[in-house]
Protein 1
Amino acid sequence: DQQVKQNSPSLSVQEGRISILNCDYTNSMFDYFLWYKKYPAEGPTFLISISSIKDKNEDGRFTVFLNKSAKHLSLHIVPSQPGDSAVYFCAASGGNNNDMRFGAGTRLTVKP
Amino acid sequence: GAGVSQSPSNKVTEKGKDVELRCDPISGHTALYWYRQSLGQGLEFLIYFQGNSAPDKSGLPSDRFSAERTGGSVSTLTIQRTQQEDSAVYLCASSQTPGTGYEQYFGPGTRLTVT
């Protein structure tokens, strides 16, 4: 069962504009959410996280928003840069699980 | 400092053969995870080690898959009698502590191709 879903496999944005990547989850026990960024031939790297006690976390150009009632989170990148082009994975953990559930990823392309 | 390393980076094997994939976690990290990413899919949890506790094997897809972690450090994922559907990138990650509020550090992965 896919507990974390990223329904957009790809997203293309013009440099300087905002990129919005979306993620939905089904398990209400999840209480910690992360975004990872992955370049080709490299492992994912941690980008930003948010706990369920917050609804927003900001780090420079990256902001993650959490809507617990909708079981939805999003990653905003503004302004987008060509170097942001990568696959972005949403992940969630919590409850009694020690493992982390990942979405299928969204490939972001930022065009110069 | 050194990150998570994995070997080999690429492995091509014939159907029915056994393969071993290795992971060297970051020194001092007590938690170690194995994931795999099949083409077009997300990261699929396989197995989790925490210190000397019994591993959480709930994600292993079949009894052909096994993993061990020696001395609380290096881990080996073994796939016996490989099948074509085992073809994927196998990723290892480690973290300082398990549970919420942590981040995992990933290795570069091993791309396994079963012909």
Note: The mean pLDDT of chain A is 92.
Protein 2
Amino acid sequence: DQQVKQNSPSLSVQEGRISILNCDYTNSMFDYFLWYKKYPAEGPTFLISISSIKDKNEDGRFTVFLNKSAKHLSLHIVPSQPGDSAVYFCAASAQPSGNTPLVFGKGTRLSVIA
Amino acid sequence: GAGVSQSPRYKVAKRGQDVALRCDPISGHVSLFWYQQALGQGPEFLTYFQNEAQLDKSGLPSDRFFAERPEGSVSTLKIQRTQQEDSAVYLCASSPYGQGSYEQYFGPGTRLTVT
């Protein structure tokens, strides 16, 4: 049973527009959520995170929104750039420190078209 | 500074062979994780070390999988008698220990193909 779900395997967006990637989770013990970006033949790279005490976290073009009651989070990229084309993974954990395994979704492949 | 490195980057093994995959974490990082990523899937947790202590190995799929980190730095994931279902990318991640530091930094992975 998947605890973290990314229901859209792929997303295509025009350059300059907004990209919205969605993630749902089932485990109510999750309190920390992270987005990772992955290029082919590279490891995942940390992008942005949010803890359950917040409902929004912003870093430049990237904003993550958390709706804890709906067990849903989303990543917004504005404006989208061709270099953003990658696979994006949503991940969750129950504890804040770096000593807890992350639970990942299956990923969403974002293609930004010039 | 240097990130997490893994070697080899690619490994082809015949079914039944033993393999050893190496991870060099970021210097000073206390926590080290191994994940397995099958094609089209997200990374799945295998095992976790805090320094040299293996605190969680609940994700190891069978007793053919063994991991160690004897000096609290470099770690090795060993797979004995490889099977075709072991074909995957094996990712290593490290993290500084401490409250609030919940980012894990990933290496490039080792792609294992079992023929």
Note: DSSP finds no helices and eleven strands in chain B.
